[in-house]
Sequence to fold (198 residues):
Amino acid sequence: MVRSAYTPLSSRLLQSGTDFCSPAQQLPERVSLEHPAIDVMTDFKRVCAVVIRSTDSVGKAHKRMIQRGVRLLLVLDHDRKVAGLITATDILGEKPMKVIAQRGCTREEILVSDIMTPRERLEVLDMEEITGARVGHVVATLRASGRQHAMVVERDSHGKMSVRGLFSATQIARQLGVLIQTTEVARTFSEIESQLAV
Fold:
């Protein structure tokens, strides 16, 4: 084996206040219902998914949502596989109160696994279909499901799924230029439709 002569690279000290690079997806600021669906999808190949473990507390999950400015976390099991998802509505709605009433525990004792939507109940969209879809298709899908979010999966050559991205009604409304006054799904979509019809 021939050894080449390599010279050392130059180095310097890290400056105070240095930031770090992270993946960033730039979604279009404005879209119409005719734009490609991919223009409103948070793509986990371009931004990091915000995750939480199923064994973490609901309080920790809520704090992470606030810190990262999101309303949904992917829930991971002990093997770092997707176990489900948890939304701000899950945390701030009736679910914690039901667990407290059933178990006689405190809010601090409630785990993510107690109120998350488990993997086996999650309906997902296929990335293959998304590539040919429009924003209007996504809006219609979210409205029909009565949900604020839709998860997108892709499959490898063996058919194994991985979560590729996410659609959010709030994000879509922002990009469509629609102001949303509430998190209620039905009203959200009626507001989108009425404001787009003008």
About this structure: The radius of gyration is 21 Å. The first strand starts at residue 41 and ends at 43. The beta strands are 41-43, 51-53, 72-76, 82-87, 117-118, 124-126, 149-155, 161-168.
